[in-house]
Amino acid sequence: LGDRVSGDIGDRENPTPSRCLGVFGLSLYTTEQQINHIFSKFGPVEKVQVVIDAKTGRSRGFCFVYFASQDDAKVAKNECTGMEIDGRRIRVDFSITQRAHTPTPGIYMGKPTVSSRGDNGYDRRRDRDEYYYRGGGGGGGGGGYRERDYYQRGYRHRSPSPHYRRSRRYERERSYSPRIETRSKG
DNA sequence: GTTGAGCGTT
C-alpha cells in the first residue's frame, strides 16, 4: 500500500530523489548566480537554470539546480526549503522532471503562463489548455501569439495580496473610493 | 518592480 514502482520519477507530492532540485516561489529578480551561491554551500553545483518565460523574457519564479551528488542535493533540499530569498519564501523539492522538454520547432506545446485556478473567484471557466503560440511553420500562421490575451485577466476580482496592498497602485485605487452616494458633486 | 502558483520548449 502506498509504495510506488521503483524507477518511476514519482509525483508532485513525492518526487523521487535525484541530483536535480526544483526551487519554487522565487522572486522574479533572483538570479542564477544568487541561487548558485546559496546552493553551492552544500556541494558542487553543476548548473542552475532559472526558467524564463518565452513571451515576457522574465523569470517564471522557479529554477532547477543540478548537483553533482545526490546526497548533496538532498541536504540542500532540506536546508533550503522555507528559506527566504529576495523576500520570498522558497520551496525546494526533487524535480519531477529531469530536463527541459525537447523543443518543438514552430509551435509551443506548453500551457499559457498565466492560469486560473478557479479558487479566487474569477474566470474559472477559462480553459487553460490553450497554447499561446500559433504554429510558425505548419500552422500557416505568422508565428505570432494567439488573439487571447492571457495577461489581461481580471485582477480586480481577486482579494488583494499583502504584496499588492503595499503597492502604490493599490493606494491609488483605494483613494478613488467609488461610492455611488458620493456623486452628489455638482 | 503585475499583485505569484508553479516542474523546464536554448
From TrEMBL:
The keyword RNA-binding applies. Residues 154-169 have a biased composition (Basic residues). Residues 19-97 form the RRM domain. Keywords: RNA-binding. Residues 2-14, 120-132, 170-186 have a biased composition (Basic and acidic residues). Residues 101-186 are annotated as: Disordered. Residues 134-144 have a biased composition (Gly residues). This is RRM domain-containing protein.
